[in-house]
Amino acid sequence: MADRLSNPPIVVKIGGSTLGNNDTSLKDLVALQHQGRNVVVVHGGGPVISRWMQRQGIAPRFVNGLRVTDAESLDIVVAVLTGLVNKELVSIMHGLGARVLGMSGIDAGILEARVANPDLGYVGEITRVNAEPINAVLGGGYIPMLAPLAMQERDGSEHSGGALNINGDTVAGELAHAMGADHLIFLTDVPGVMDGNGRVMARLNRRRASLLLNSDVVRGGMIPKLEACVRALESARVADIVDGREPGALLKCLEDEGGGTRIVG
Which pLDDT tens digit goes with each residue over 137-180? Predict the structure, then answer.
C-alpha cells in the first residue's frame, strides 16, 4: 500500500450536468487507473435530483449555487446520489475495466459537517475530513467514487448524526486539501471561468480567484467551484475547471493540452 500511495492523488469532480452527454470522462478515469495513477472521484447528480424532486411536486431552489434542502428533499438527495447515480457510475466503470468502490462521505465517517445556513435546510459545511478510508481504498487498487453527503456532527440536535447534503464541488475541494492532492480537476458543462465579457480566463492565481469571488463576475454554480479551488490550493499544486463535455478533456488537462481555466497557488 505504501508504494501505491507514495504519489499524491488526483481529485476529479464529475459534474452531473455532463454525464450522459457522450463525454469520455469515465473512460479517461479508467485510463488513468491503468496508468497507475491514484484518482479520487467525487460525482454530482444535480439534474437527476431536480427531476425526482419535480416528480414529487417539489420545486428545486438554489442560493448561490447551493440547493435548498428540506427534510423531504433530503430523502430524495440521499436516495438519488447514493443509489441511482453512484451505482450507475460504478457499474459503467466496472464495464470499462476499472476497479471502483462506490461510497459516500457518510461511509466510515469520511466527512462530518454542521448545518451551514438554516435558510438552506439540511445543507452542510464540512468540519472534518477523515481520509484514512479513502487511502485504504486507493491502497487496495480501487478508485473511490464518492457521493457528496456528510454526517452531521454529534451536536445533540434532533438531526445529530444524520445525513447532510454537501455541494459536490465543496467536497472535492476539501478532499483535495485534506489529502494534499497533486491536482484538483472540475469537469463541468461550461468552458471555464468567464470574465465580464464572457471570455474564458485561461489562468488565475489564488489571489485573483479570491477577488473574483467578491465580485459580480462569478455567479451561480461557478461560485462553489472557485471557492473549492482556492481552498484546495492551500495544499494542492494546481486546480483546473474544464469543459467535461469535450472528448478526452481529463487526459488533455493532465497533459497541459486542455482549455478551460487553470488556477495556481
Answer: 999 999 999 999 999 999 888 889 999 999 999 999 999 999 99
Contact 32, 249 (CB under 8 A): no
Interacting residues of 198 by C-beta distance below 8 A, sequence separation 6+: none
- pLDDT at position 22 is 58
**Which burial class, exposed, middle or buried, applies to 259 when counting CB atoms under 10 A from its CB (0-12, 13-18, 19+)?**
middle
Global model pTM greater than 0.70: yes
Handedness of CA 108, 75, 80, 170 (dihedral sign): negative
Task: Name the residue with cell 447534503.
Answer: 165
Count of CB atoms situated within 10 Å of the CB of 46? 21
Amino acid at 32: L
**Per-residue cell: 244:** 467535461
What the block records as the C-alpha cell of 104 is 459516500
